[in-house]
Amino acid sequence: GQSYEIRMLDNRKIGELPEINGKLVKSIFRVVFHDRRLQYTEHQQLEGWRWNRPGDRILDIDIPMSVGIIDPRANPTQLNTVEFLWDPSKRTSVFIQVHCISTEFTMRKHGGEKGVPFRVQIDTFKENENGEYTEHLHSASCQIKVFKPKGADRKQKTDREKMEKRTPHEKEKYQPSYETTILTEVG
User: What is the per-residue pLDDT across 24-43, written as a single tens digit (0 to 9) for each?
Assistant: First the structure.
């Protein structure tokens, strides 16, 4: 339920895709499973979640906090997807809220479970000659884990303690933490 900002940036090289200058593009955000094993059963997992949480959504846009988004939509049948139009030449920030936690999809339910990693994927499209946003421009994603506030604080504390016990050589294998995550381009 916490709002997280995702800044939408025009990362074209000079002269690249001039046909979208002055035009809107559509971005579709999805929260999906990161683990391949869960990707195979994603439909059943999401149906189970819908059955346990009637009327709830997995992903929403915090519209009052967002800047530069046009025509935001959330399809009632796709609980893990939101979409909107935006102008790549203008400042655009979308604030998203994830309403499920990583442990809702683990087998054991007695606390202390690892929690499954999710992935936020953003696919961006331009208009075709019929005015439909079907021509793929770009995809990017990053892994997320969602916890309740107390669980998140506890996880950060135990992760920090684990890192302090490692040797400098072992620490090199891990990414440092940053204030901002740059989403990874998906091929």
Answer: 999 999 999 988 888 888 88
| Residues contacting 58, CB < 8 A, separation 6+ | 31, 46, 49, 79, 80, 98, 99, 100
Residues sharing a CB contact under 8 Å with residue 184, sequence separation 6 or more, in sequence order:
140, 141, 142
pLDDT for 15 beyond 80:
yes
C-alpha closest to that of 30 among 164, 123, 121, 135: 121
**Domains of the chain, each with CATH number or no CATH:** 1-183 (2.60.40)
CA distances from residue 33 to 45, 107, 118, 119, 155 in whole angstroms, order as listed:
10, 15, 5, 6, 20
Total-model pTM: 0.86
Given a cut of 70, whether residue 112 has pLDDT beyond it is no
Confidence of residue 110 (pLDDT cuts 50, 70, 90): low
Can you spell out the DSSP letters for 37-73?
A: HHHTTHHHHHHHHHHHSTT--SEEE-TTT-BSEEEEE
